[in-house]
Amino acid sequence: MPGGTTAISLAIILCGFATTSVDAAIPDPAGLEHAAERLGRTLPIWSGVPFAGILLSIALFPLLAPHFWHRHFQKVAIAWALVFFAPFLVQYGQIATFKLVEVLLIDYVPFLILLWGLYTVSGGILIRATLVATPALNVAMLGVGTVLASFMGTTGASMLLIRPLLRANAWRHHKAHVFVFLIFLVANVGGLLTPLGDPPLFLGFLHGVPFFWTLRLLPQFAVAVLLVLLVFFAVDTWQMRREIAERPSHEAPHKRTAFHLEGTHNFWLLAAILGAVLLSGLWQTGGARWFGIPFEYRNLVRDLLIVVAGLVSIVSTPRRVRHDNGFTWDAMKEVGYLFFGIFVTIIPVLMMLRAGTEGSMAWLASGVSQPWQYFWVTGALSSFLDNAPTYVTFFALALGQLGIRPEEVGAVLSGSVAHPNAARFALYLTGISAGAVFMGANTYIGNAPNFMVLSIAKEHGVKMPSFFGYMAWSVLVLIPTFIVLTCLFY
Questions:
Q1: How far apart are CA 168 and CA 480, in angstroms?
Q2: What pLDDT sits at residue 392?
Q3: DSSP conformation class of 253
Q4: Torsions phi, psi for 259 (to 5 deg)
């Protein structure tokens, strides 16, 4: 699997190493699950230091030692994973190996397969257009991509739009803000309206949230998109006028309207990937345990279909199309390695979060009881953690606070079962959903497509802001937007 082979191979090797000891002594996998839950209640807060370390590495190395980072980011990611897991394994043995296998097989490998599939297929779609960027055109492209993101996923929409935006804005020197707003809107905000848009909403669908329930988030979606696009239009207009004034002899070339698509069969493959994801949520199958880790056959079928779609795209798309698209595997490799380190070092953080009021982060869980708190706490954690498990954690916390059983979720939200806390649960869930999806845009690592957009833009010579430079943009643009949403809806 080009672009993902090395990272997935590394995960499989570690799984093999870990499962050797797990399989040798797991007569009762449920006992290990309970032991892991108990451990989550006793882990000290400093066990999250390696996770903080990899986040700081991603933030600081590209700024302070860019050449070192470019050559050695793989080693840095693996080193932080080992800094956490080696002592964790020595101290907790089978529980540690169980958690490693679980996070790699259930979370990391499917995550990377889906990203690889969307990246590969969308990279085979070439939009040949002679349109030259103007503020209005850029707004239109970002707006279309934002809407598409809810139906083809934030990753798919981002990968489809980034290359046309790069070509349209190629004549400009000051264009990094275009791709910052692409991350804001297409890679994050746009995924709010359906479970196909963003992984946390898909997990909600798997936990009983009706498929079309998220459409009730349309008002929040519309307000956020409108506010961010207005800011973008103002910034882009100012930047373009300044640039043309600075170099009047190099103004934008004459605007034309030629438009042509190549590799259009990849749209069918993209639809197949999204269909496979949806199928895994609707199709009920049996399951089994592998080295004590539960899995369902439908998820294996989903991952297999995604891999097949990607391979068909590679074989059937002319190399010329990918070459003209500026397609390389570099972004996929970077995401694969860095998120490997993130997924491994995040293990103790998620264990403490799942312990709720009984763990080291009890101060956080016990302080969340209002809709606006669910919105902001879920969002703040989703800015730095994987937003999917963060969503599930606060989803479970809301159920517990309101006395709603997991099997009642769909009936309560659809109104087919009366529950005294139904309206409050719906409000909590809107906060959890919007927080997890929207605030993934606050940092480069808040959502996987963020990093892919960053990597591809840098590949094409765009001088993207540093980790903290990007956060300055998000603080100035997104935080005021989220405050408005809080006042209007929560």
A1: 29
A2: 76
A3: P
A4: -150, 130
Domain count, the chain: 1
Residue 226 domain flag:
yes
Whether residue 265 lies inside any domain: the answer is yes
Query: What letter would DSSP give residue 416?
Result: S
Give dist(CA 362, CA 180) in Å, integer.
Answer: 35
Residue 198 lies in a domain: yes
Residue 252: its pLDDT value, please?
A: 52
Residues 6+ apart with CB under 8 A from 85: 96, 100, 344
Q: Which domain holds residue 142?
A: 5-356
Residue 24 pLDDT: 46
pLDDT in the model for residue 23: 47
Q: Provide the b/e sequence for 375-385 (b: ≥16 CB within 10 Å).
A: bbbbbebbbbb
Residue 429, token pair as written in the block: 């869930």
Q: Please name the residues in contact with 109: beta carbons below 8 A apart, sequence gap of 6 or more.
A: 8, 11, 12, 303
Q: Which of 121, 127, 214, 208 is nearest to 164 (CA)?
A: 127
Three-class secondary structure of residue 404 per DSSP: coil
CB of 122 closer than 8 Å to CB of 14? no
The number of C-alpha atoms within 13 Å of 219 and in the hemisphere containing its C-beta is 9
Separation of alpha carbons 99 and 15, rounded Å: 10
Is residue 457 a part of any domain in this protein? no
Return the pLDDT at 308.
95
pLDDT value of position 190: 94
Write the CB contacts of 74 (distance below 8 Å, at least 6 apart in sequence).
337
What values do phi and psi take at 44, rounded to 5? -75, 155
Q: pLDDT tens across 166-193, in order?
A: 988 888 888 999 999 999 999 999 999 9
The number of angstroms, rounded, from the C-alpha of 53 to the middle of its chain's C-alpha atoms is 20
Structure tokens at 352: 């403490």
Q: What residue ranges of the chain have pLDDT lower than 70?
A: 1-30, 129-130, 245-259, 291-292, 386, 389
DSSP for 185-236, written as a single string:
HTTTGGGGSSTTT-HHHHHHHHTT--GGGGGGGHHHHHHHHHHHHHHHHHHH
pTM of the prediction?
A: 0.78
The stretches of 317-459 forming alpha helices (DSSP H) are 319-324, 330-345, 347-354, 362-365, 371-382, 387-402, 409-414, 422-438, 448-459
Rounded CA-CA distance 447/187 in Å is: 8
Number of C-beta neighbours around residue 39 at 10 A: 19
* 340: nearest Cα among 80, 141, 153, 143: 80
Both tokens of 386, joined, read 């994987």
Q: What is the pLDDT of residues 245-278, one digit of tens each?
A: 665 444 455 555 566 778 889 989 988 988 888 8
